[in-house]
């Protein structure tokens, strides 16, 4: 079974109005179970729109979105995925522990199950000692780790991440990249990851999906075969080759139309 399948997906915003935008045009993309796929492309090419379609936060104008073998809506109801966005999106008035418990509350899990699962997730992201803290007492990187713990709390087979590390300094970012890969490897989670960073996409992914602006299309899919990642990977020739391939693919796409003001 595939984790995500988009077939002939088109998304038009404000259809029929003067401000009509075709954000995505005939997207076909499959993400296999356990696969890490990044989306990269110029600003406005529809990366977030694609992710929101998979999450069933918006619906396609045409085409189908299947998640874990089900229509996107059913997958949302069944909590088949977790979401982590650039803004950690934590609730300030809830402790770290209770933030991570939230999706379990929505699922109706018992108090003890919620507690134990949240603890397990906080251990996983190295924040067990901060369970009783409030988000404002944590650094940006720690908040992002809480958001990842929350996204993983229901043990979803799929994570949807929209520039989750975009606001972090380079060192923290690299550390969290490694942590994310470790978590995915240990849990078998598939990931669809939006980023603006070519090195980040190459480092994390099995495949990098390169998109063109407007209407957003997939221009190339670059496979990355770097084996197990580690500090040496970032210095390796294969890593730089991957970066060059993605950069070329980004340059090679059609010239983006002028964005309306
Ligand atoms: N709710 C909406 N209503 C109207 N237009 C929208 C809406 N959401 C997105 N768009 C438009 O769809 C296009 C794609 O937007 P999207 O946010 O998916 O791009 P992106 O690739 O994620 O951009 P960025 O890299 O800047 O985050 C843009 O032209 C955007 O203005």
Order of helices and strands: EEEHEEHEHHHEHEHEEH
Major β-sheet profile: 6 strands, mixed
The geometry reads as: globular
Order of strands side by side in the largest beta sheet? 6-7-8-3-9-10
Helix content bin: 25-40%
CATH fold naming of the largest domain:
Rossmann fold
Organism: Asanoa ferruginea
Pfam family, one: ABC_tran
Keywords: ATP-binding, Nucleotide-binding, Transport
Domain ABC transporter: 4-238
Could you characterize the architecture of this molecule?
Pfam families: ABC_tran. The chain has 261 residues and is an alpha/beta fold. Strand 1 and strand 2 (21-32) form a beta hairpin. The model is unreliable at 253-259 (pLDDT under 50). The protein is built from eight helices and ten strands. The protein is globular, with a radius of gyration of 18 Å. The chain has two domains: 1-80 and 158-166 and 181-261, 3-Layer(aba) Sandwich (Rossmann fold), CATH 3.40.50; 88-155, no CATH class. The protein has helices at residues 47-54, 72-77, 96-107, 111-124, 140-152, 170-187, 198-204, 237-252, and strands at residues 2-13, 21-32, 36-40, 62-67, 70-71, 81-85, 158-162, 190-194, 207-212, 217-223.
């Amino acid at each position: 079974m595939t984790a995500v399948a988009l077939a002939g997906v088109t998304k038009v915003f404000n259809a029929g109005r003067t401000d009509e935008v075709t954000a995505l045009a005939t997207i076909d993309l499959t993400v296999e179970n356990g696969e890490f796929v990044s989306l990269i492309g110029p600003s406005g090419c529809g990366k977030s729109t694609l992710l929101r379609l998979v999450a069933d936060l918006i619906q396609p104008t045409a085409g189908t979105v299947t998640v874990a073998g089900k229509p996107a809506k059913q997958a949302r109801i069944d909590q088949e995925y977790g979401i982590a966005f650039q803004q950690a999106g934590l609730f300030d008035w809830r402790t770290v522990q209770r933030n991570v418990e939230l999706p379990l509350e929505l699922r109706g899990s018992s108090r003890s199950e919620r507690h134990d699962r949240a603890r397990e997730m906080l251990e996983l992201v190295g924040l067990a000692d901060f369970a009783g803290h409030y988000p404002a007492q944590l650094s940006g990187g720690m908040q992002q780790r809480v958001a990842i713990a929350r996204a993983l709390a229901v043990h979803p087979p799929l994570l949807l991440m929209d520039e989750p590390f975009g606001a972090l300094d380079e060192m923290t970012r690299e550390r969290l990249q490694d942590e994310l890969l470790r978590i995915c490897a240990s849990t078998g989670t598939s990931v669809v990851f939006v980023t603006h960073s070519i090195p980040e996409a190459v480092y994390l992914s099995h495949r990098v999906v390169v998109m063109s602006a407007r209407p957003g299309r997939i221009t190339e899919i670059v496979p990355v075969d770097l084996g197990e990642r580690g500090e040496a990977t970032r210095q390796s020739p294969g890593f730089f080759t991957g970066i060059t391939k993605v950069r070329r693919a980004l340059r090679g796409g059609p010239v983006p139309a002028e964005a309306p003001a």
